Amino acid sequence: MTDTSRQFIIKTLILTIIVFAIASTLFSTVLKTWYFTFYPFQLLLIATVTTIGHLWIVRATAQNARKFTTAYMASVTLKLMTYLIFMLVYLLIDRSHVIAFVLTFITFYTIFTVFEVIQVLKLIKKQS
Questions:
Q1: For the CA atoms of 36, 42, 43, 49, what is the dihedral angle to 10 degrees?
Q2: 1 falls in which pLDDT band (50, 70, 90)?
Q3: 98 phi and psi angles, rounded to 5 deg
Q4: What pLDDT was estimated at residue 119?
Q5: Disulfide: which of 35, 44, 117, 126 matches 27 by Cβ 3.0-4.6 Å?
Q6: Residue 80's domain spans which residues?
Q7: How far apart are the first and last CA of the chain?
Q8: How many domains does the chain have?
Q9: pTM across the whole model
Q10: CA dist., res. 72 & res. 62, Å (int)
């Protein structure tokens, strides 16, 4: 495992802990009526899929810089498909928290996507 990959994993863990702490605080105070027990699994799924996708991009880019675009687009496509399947399965099982589920998912997705884009831009600058 490269140093870049190790740093990304550590940063992702820190971000996940911070987001979890903020979400837990909000759900126990201001958003008490919107609380649903499945939100930690959303966070865990998004953090895991983001990490796997980023490591795939780093590995493909390390082998051949031209593979970056293909790896990035494939990563984004697979992530979106994974998220869509996850959301559909959950919403078919439990329809009682649809709005809270979707809003929480979109929030977590946005946070981790911005984080990953920043990290990818740093990787590109470092390699060029």
A1: 180
A2: confident
A3: -60, -50
A4: 94
A5: 35
A6: 3-127
A7: 21
A8: 1
A9: 0.91
A10: 13
45: phi then psi, degrees, rounded to nearest 5: -65, -50
Residue-wise DSSP of 19-75 = HHHHHHHHHHTTTGGG--TTHHHHHHHHHHHHHHHHHHHHHHHHH-TTHHHHHHHHH
CA angle 52, 54, 56 (to 5 degrees): 70
Rg (CA), the chain: 16
How far apart (Å, rounded) are the C-alpha atoms in residues 99 and 58? Answer: 35
State the residue for tokens 């495992």. Answer: 1
Q: How many helices (H) and strands (E) does the chain have?
A: 4, 0
Quote the CA–CA distance of 30 and 63 in Å, as a whole number: 48
